[in-house]
């Protein structure tokens, strides 16, 4: 991934993730992405349709976009590795710190909470427990081709 694409992704984490259903048709989901130590990551869960699709076929496409009226976007052909080992909660803490930086109060991290319908501050251990209970995992994307207007 070149520096220009990395900068675009860092500034614009909103994306659509496209995976392939068993019949070959596309399945789309809205996600957020972040660069973690040079790797492109997103959060997912065991029970999601896209996770099942990726277990069968690891190919996925990302459409990363800037909010309107900014017309810039990037299309990314990827292969996806699922990081669902016992260290997944620690990986999620790293992902949220990379994604939100210092936006949370000191000693906390900012991450999504379905119960409140958005991001909120979490104590790191509280978030690790949440990730385990939700059976969350990390999507680790390897970009094989990038294109677009970014």
Automatic annotation (TrEMBL):
Recorded GO MF terms: coenzyme F420 binding; oxidoreductase activity, acting on the CH-CH group of donors
UniProt keyword annotation of Oxidoreductase present: yes
GO cellular-component term (any): cytosol
Keyword set includes Oxidoreductase: yes
Annotated Pyridoxamine 5'-phosphate oxidase N-terminal domain residues: 1-112
InterPro entries: F420H2_bilvrd_red/Heme_oxyg, Pyridox_Oxase_N, Split_barrel_FMN-bd
Alphabetical keyword list: Oxidoreductase
Any one Pfam family match given in the protein's UniProt record, by short name: PNPOx_N
The protein's name: Pyridoxamine 5'-phosphate oxidase
Organism: Frankia torreyi
């Amino acid at each position: 991934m070149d520096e220009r694409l990395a900068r675009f992704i860092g500034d614009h984490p909103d994306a659509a993730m496209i995976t392939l259903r068993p019949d070959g048709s596309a399945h789309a989901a809205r996600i957020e992405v972040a660069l973690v130590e040079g790797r492109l990551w997103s959060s997912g869960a065991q029970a999601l349709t896209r996770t099942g699709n990726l277990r069968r076929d690891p190919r996925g496409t990302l459409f990363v976009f800037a909010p309107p009226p900014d017309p810039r976007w990037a299309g990314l052909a990827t292969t996806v590795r699922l990081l669902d080992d016992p260290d997944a909660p620690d990986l999620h803490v790293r992902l949220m710190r990379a994604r939100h930086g210092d936006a949370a109060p000191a000693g906390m991290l900012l991450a999504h909470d379905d119960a409140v319908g958005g991001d909120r501050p979490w104590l790191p251990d509280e978030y690790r427990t949440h990730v385990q209970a939700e059976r969350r995992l990390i999507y680790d994307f390897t970009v094989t081709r990038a294109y677009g207007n970014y």
